[in-house]
Amino acid sequence: KLAQMEEAPLYPGESIKVIAKDVMYICPFMGAISGTLTVTDYRLYIKSIERDPPFVLDVPLGVISRVEKIVAQSHGDNSFGIEIVCKDMRNLRLAYKQEEQSRLEIFENLITRAFPVSNGLPLFAFSYKEKFPVNGWQVYDPMAEYKRQGLPNESWKISRINSTFELCDTYPAILVVPTSVKDDDLSKVAAFRTKGRVPVLSWIHPESQATITRCSQPLVEPNDKHCSEDEKYLQTIMDANAQSHMLIIFDARQNSVAVTNKVKGGGCENKSSYPNVELVFLDIHNINVMRESLRKLKEIVYPTIDEDRWLANIDSTHWLEYIKMLLTGAVRIADKIESGKTSVVVHCGDGWDRTAQLTSLAMLMLDSYYRTIKGFEILIEKEWISFGHQFAVRVGHGDDDHADAERSPIFLQFIDCVWQMTRQFPAAFEFNELFLVTILDHLYSCLFGTFLFNCEQERVKQISTKTVSLWSYVNSQLDDFTNPFYVNYEHHVLYPVASLNYLELWVNYYVRWNPRMRPQVRQSWGLMPLLLVPSLLLTCAHWGFASGNLVLDPSPESPASTGPHALSA
Amino acid sequence: MLSKAAGGRPAKPSFVSYVSPEEIHIREPAGKEVNPYLLPGELLLCEASTVFKYVQEDGSNRGTYGKLVCTNFKVAFLGYESASDDNEPQFKNKVIGESDITLHCIDQIYGVYDEKKKSLYGQLKKYPEKLIIYSKDFRVFHFCLRCTKEEEVKRIVSGIVHHSQTPKLLKRLFLFSYASAAPNSPDAKNRTVMFDTFKDWHEELERTKGNVKYEVVSVNEGYRVSEKLPLYFVVPKSFLKSVTESILVHQGRGIPIWCWSCHNGAALLKMSAFPKEQDDSALQMPKLLDGIYKTIHAPPYEVLKMDDLSSSLPSLQDIQTAYTRFKQLFLIDNSIHFWDTDVKWFSLLESTNWLEIIRRCLKKSVEVVEQLERQTTNVLLIEENASDLCCVISSLVQVMMDSYCRTKFGFQSLIQKEWVIGGHSFLDRCNHLRKSDKEEAPVFLLFLDCVWQLVQQYPPAFEFTETYLTVLSDSLYIPIFSTFFFNSQHQKDTIVSGESHNAQSSPFRLLTVWDWSVQFEPKAQALLNNPLYAEKPKPDKSQRKTTRFKHHRQLSLPLTQTKSSPKRGFFREETDHLIKNILGKRISKLINSSEELHSNFREFYDSWHCKPVDFHGLLLPHIEGPEIKVWTQRYLRWIPEAQLLGGGTVAIATKFLDVMEEVQKLQKQMDEEHSQTAPEDADAVPTLRNSARLSSLFPFALLQRHSLKPVLPTSTWKDLEDEEDLAKRDDEFVELSGAD
Q1: Cβ contact A525–B535 (<8 Å)
Q2: Is the per-residue pLDDT at B372 higher than 80?
Q3: Which residues of A belong to the annotated binding site for substrate?
Q4: Domain A2-115, CATH 3.20.20.70 — does that match?
Q5: Which of B22-26, B190-194, B451-455 is predicted most confidently?
Q6: What CATH number does residue B132 fall under?
Q7: What is the pLDDT of residue A540?
Q8: How many domains does one find in chain B?
Q9: pTM, full prediction
Q10: Which domain holds residue B92?
């Protein structure tokens, strides 16, 4: 009977793998809590009705980075323990009785289900059978998005050269390249760029025609090799913008790193080969530095914050400094486009980490469309998913190699930058904080197909028919994700100030497991009802009701309502 | 994309000179004489012409020529070519212009000699070519004197240095010249309670239902007892009858003075400690304490806890040191300076310790709240003079517990009660007379910063905005208001009656800062009111509350009683502490063991934060490290790099005001439809059009940025010592294991 009350709710397609009674969850904030543990193919679920209100821990297995057995001494009978390290800034400790027969079962099931890919099983997203009224897979249509930007035009064409992913296996099928470039030349340029990631258009300024193009590094090699097709190609990109006789290449790396890369076959554009090109280094560090920084950040925020040393600790992680560097780089790019009317080329090494961060942030600053909910979804679909940010590798979906050096919180860093922008411009974005947190939660959850796989080629075969898109869920309940203060600053470029005076730690994400830092709906301050008043009044007016004693009740809303798919502690 | 916006704003070439002062041919003001606007009683002391004032923005040589004057009230710069009218700032101070600095507001003066910056003080032997003035409201002025006549340079520099830095007599304060020269304006109706009459205190007692156990006394009329104490104050009933003689002996020290009563009857009191060396006072103690006991402790269930703030909070010296370091972070010379500071931001901020001091004050206040609210215990705050940290803590406790103190008039009344009448030594703490640095400590600013933390954490709970707090902090340095220019009520009364006799004329009236119309037009005053303030709910709600509260009270009383069952014994223990304390043997751990205190506090704090916030009930601040923030508006407001065009909370306020306006319009339409009578005008809402163009530092950003170009860090990076390995590691050629 007890077990029934402590049973886990299931999503369509989800099935229970193991249930164990009297498992203890050692909560760093509330102490040890004893309840029923359920492991399904999607989640780890503990419910305890000992507490009032009942305690629930509901963790998607996708967030699990590592599972380890530990021996816990101080919990009486419950001497066997599991420590679970999560990707979303928390660790969980479970303890259970030694003689319990299901002991092995729990551990084994957890390992198998948390790391399905390593165990030859499919990810849960392929079993998830929820039906939503809208289909999120239709959100992004590259042709429509390019059309919105005014493409094709006389200088830029839509090319299908990569429709079979032969030119570049990590690029999407549809690319925008200069009209005059022949396919043969494009193949030669591809041979000169790492992984064939040729310069292609990401965004075009509606008035000045200045463009943001993205690519990977040139294969200069130690002997300063050059490629005349590549040189000509960049010249064509410059010529496509009549407003400027310059082209600026933003290399996200440090100068020294770019140069050392020559030894390994890479490098950066050689100034002598590219006339009228300015090369700017943005000094942003690599994925290893970012991973290490986030590890340090987790140490200082979980489980507790050392109040006396807070500022020194936050300083020591450098996390906000890296955010500052990224925003600075993106502002420089946006400024060159907007004020300089100059086209830019952005690359790092492979052109799928820092490049994606920079182009998408610059586009967010330049184009108010991307600051709407639908626009932001398109921005992610385009700059990140279709252009081959290695989500599977960087997040490590379903993979048990927690020490994999290819994992890195690059996308998280991008979302953090977006959050910093929403803090600085609280009325400029149609979406709210919950929207960003939800995106990050499902980056790891493996519930939706959106962030699975590394590139379009891998995705194209199966993903839209066999999985559900995150945007199906989001767009079915837009009210939850809408910023009530949104004002459409159409045609306004937003330049965030990349000063540490303004950058702050995203407490409602990184420190949200700490009950003392409960997420509050600070931005809406419970004013939602009031903001709905005009439309209500209109309705009233329409029906001819008297309005003499209209009462505005700005009573506080309960803290962040989290929706059915949110992760709860 | 910005073409529309950029084109909409015509350039003002006349206002700004783009050539360096060396290149320019000094144009004498073409027949147009610029004269300073002088207040009544204000005298021009010295002036210098063709002074070049730099535009702070970019450290370039852009700026404007004008006259620099020094009066007995301010230093002012008057540009030869006045700004065009469309540049008129929306939020204008009627007393202090944007290029005016009152003498009391001058913080530091530097001279530049051969590119070297030197602090200017005392008698000057050599006169600088550039003058830099840092003001206490964080403006930085750069004046170039190269084109000014030598004579005038000498006069203006030594004039400014002299009038702003040499010690002054209280009677020489501008306050008095202004008050005698200004026309006697009729007393403006102000709902702020001044607490200078018996009635004010009596009503406060009734409001808080403290009149059961406390009463107003007039024993200090004519300052017979103490010059430090106000004319009227509140003590436990019958307290005075039993100990009157000892009061006279100790000049008002050792009297527990009532600050405020909680809804459950527990009271917050403060007391100035006996001087440590007066050992003989110990002889009086038992008697005195007996008095306190009899009165406060009379009902069986109540206990009194004492908190010696000087041992549990940072010293005034610590506060002063922290603030001196902290403010320096925001006195920014130019853009390069700003970004250099930014690179080391967190470690610099940490080293000032200012935020930590704020955190400790908030934490202490929450501890006191816990004792009052949950333990129904009277709390007695003790401090040397009971007029510094006592004011901070008692005011903060009231702001957190009493929603009346979160309205504008309630807050102003609170400042009157605890600070102005409560005897905070504004004159010494602000060092208005430049007499001694030793007494200087920004205690009131510390309080305002703590309140700001609450305001930014719970905007709908306050009737006023952060702009209100910022202009209030600026008003500390405007010597036409008496509010912040005396050490005590006694000092003010004495000097005012003395001056009135001298003047022979009708007694002059000193202005209070609470009359905001002196400084701001109604349109600007509207920005001090918070549009997001959640109005007090309807009475039926509060009805429910009181019934629930009664129930709560019945429950809690027996509980507390059992807790303190050995009443007499418990008290004795306390007396010991008090005696020890008064004898100067500082005991840091009072009453509870610190551990118990800590866990009580934690439990209370955590459980409060678990519940949804009632903006009209108890309000506790978040005191975790990340939640204590820098008061951006006050400290960054004049730094052009820190402006966000179209950003900041002002963007939200704008949206909100738009909606309000729409609601009013619709309501009006509907009223018109239903009743044919003409509706009365709705309350004016300030219009903040086009939030996309507003700066986040609105309404202060008067140094308009001349371009829409973004600000970019000039120095961005510091070395990564520990991460060098990782940074060198190669991430450029990722082997896609299993991905291909």
Answers
A1: no
A2: yes
A3: 261-264, 286-287, 348-354
A4: no
A5: B451-455
A6: 2.30.29.30
A7: 43
A8: 1
A9: 0.86
A10: 44-166
